[in-house]
Amino acid sequence: MQILVSPSDLIKRCLWLEYKRFFLKEKKEDEIKNFVLDDKPLMLKEDDAFVIGLLKVVETPNLVHRFKDHTEEFLTNRSIINNNRLFIRINDMLRYVSEYKECFPDYFLPSFEYKKGIDDLKAFIDKLYPEIEKLSIVKIPNKKDGKLIDHYSSNSVKSLLYPKAKDKIVD
Question: What is the CA angle 103-86-101, rounded to 5?
Answer without folding.
Answer: 10
